[in-house]
Amino acid sequence: MTREEHIRHLIELAYDAQSRSYCPYSHFATGAALEAENGQIFQGCNIENAAYSPTNCAERTAFFKAVSEGVRGFVRIAVVGNYQGKPGDFCAPCGVCRQVMAEFCDVESFEVILARSPEEYRILRLKELLPEHFGPEDMKLAEPV
Ligand code: THU
Questions:
Q1: Which residue, of 25, 44, 75, 98, is most buried by count of CB atoms within 10 Å of its CB?
Q2: Which numbered atom of ligand 1 lies nearest the CA of 61?
């Protein structure tokens, strides 16, 4: 498989996850496919809630599935999202999801693939989306309590 075919496959898995989105409040359905260093792929969709704030984004669903299964090293994530099934634009991860990515990924190398179709996508490094981030390495400076 070429790199292009591989990325296209990841985007298709993000669309597959999007088909399971639970978004009765925003009608904005999102999907993600997270590739781990060991080759495993974890899918996620957004899951909304009547109380609104318990809502979980597609990206975090994928990360939390992976971490709860014991997987922590990741190389890239594909993200898709659009409103009421209309053709969408590139859907960038929210700030909270970027922070979760920074907890488990190398910001210099982790690739965030924003897709509006399997053929149309942009690839950004996490560092571009979250410059000057606060991460686990900063906490190592803290005095143990
Ligand atoms: N959402 C995601 O799942 N990922 C993003 O990157 C942006 C927003 C979800 C949260 C909510 O269910 C809906 O999209 C509208 O904000």
A1: 44
A2: 3
14 three-state secondary structure? helix
CATH 3.40.50.2300 given to domain 3-139: no
Q: Are strands 41-45 and 28-36 parallel, antiparallel or unpaired?
A: antiparallel
d(CA 132, CA 127): 8
Percent of the chain with pLDDT over 70: 97
pLDDT for the residue 143: 67
Q: pLDDT digits over 36-75, tens only?
A: 999 999 999 999 999 999 999 999 999 999 999 999 999 9
Burial class, 138, CB count within 10 angstroms (exposed 0-12 / middle 13-18 / buried 19+): exposed
Report CA(10)–ligand 1 centroid distance (Å). Answer: 19
Residues 6+ apart with CB under 8 A from 65: 42, 43, 44
Interval between CA 117 and ligand 1 midpoint (Å) = 18
pLDDT at site 145 = 61
Separation CA 28–CA 35 (nearest Å) = 23
CA distance 106 to 109: 6
